[in-house]
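Incident log entry.

Two folding requests arrived from the same account within the same minute. Monitoring flagged them as a possible duplicate submission, but the sequences differ. Recording both here for audit purposes.

Request one:
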Amino acid sequence: MAKQTIGLCELCGRQDVLRTEHHLTPKEEGGTWLPTAFLCIPCHKQVHALYSNHELAVRLNTLDALRHDEKLVSYIKWIRKQPASKLVKTKKSRQRRKK
């Protein structure tokens, strides 16, 4: 199980949130020993709902790339306004559901 801590989400910037370690290059794509980031649970779920592990490894393997991707920009803007305690539902993108 992934290690969870309370702190700053490195993607949305919210403070005092329950967060988990996200492998910027997924482990199944060779990222076991590569850089990681701590993301709040909603951001982590949203990232994996929107993108395949292959897409994360090839195109979105940095925090900067994730922050500026068109699918996440509006989500990040929205989640920043949510309290740390809010439970957020995550839906897979239509493109991910087809696969």
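Request two (distinct sequence, not a duplicate):
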Amino acid sequence: MVEKNSTSDIIFDIINATFFLLFTLICVFPFYYLFINTISDNGLVAKGLVNFIPRGIHLKNYIALKNVTGLGTSFIVTLTRTILGTATSTVACGFVGYLVTKKELWHRKFCYRFLIITMYFSAGIIPWFTTMQMLGLTNNYLGYIIPGIVNVYNIIMVKTYIESIPAEMEESAAMDGASYMTVFVKIIWPLSKPILATIAIWTAVGHWNSFQDSLILMSGAPQLKTLQERLYLYLNQSSNLTAAMGTATTGLSETERLAMLNVKSIQYTVAMVTAIPILCVYPFMQNYFVKGIMLGAVKG
């Protein structure tokens, strides 16, 4: 039987839908505003006249980015560190999270508590930099990958999720002679896709947006600078950005030259380019992300 909604239910649904629609618009508008300012007339953007609808649409800002020194290399560095860093960290955190659920693990409680302690205590940037220097990870691409392989918070999330999986599944596999690695690869890994996708998103966003390690560790290796550090430098050194874009203005009139070299438009464009990849990846993993968050937080 189909139940008819009461008037109060209908009113609640309308209010609820309206609230979430407004909330969605508030979240989406900054990206929309950023995008329309990258494709609008640069002179109007400089005067703050582009707010809701693009005006004087063009793609010159995106085309001109190819002339920014080092931007392509930085994009490749950031992309590869995001892929490698996410893959290695997800596998490592997944396996460690599985191991700390095993009562047979030697001094399991001590190992787990020792991992948790590292979440609350940090030596600071100077000792961290000194340690990285002693390990040979300064001006070294591996400095982006190795330190981030183990993330304690992600391990806790994986551990909590795995504990929700019926133990009988592992026990039956063990009775058939399966090793811990076999159980992990063939049973735990496939069943843990929601939480693994969740920590993969977190890790990928962290790698993509990171610039502090690039700023501190790669001072002697400009070819290893990340995209976010390039953006940081551009936002703080507008004159250098204008000079880098100079080759894109050949053959234009003075008015067109000034519009083309509008710093604000270029800053918006670089910011949009750095945000696009994450915005494209997230929708495909959203279902896993939501499910992983819910199930990974059931138990402490």
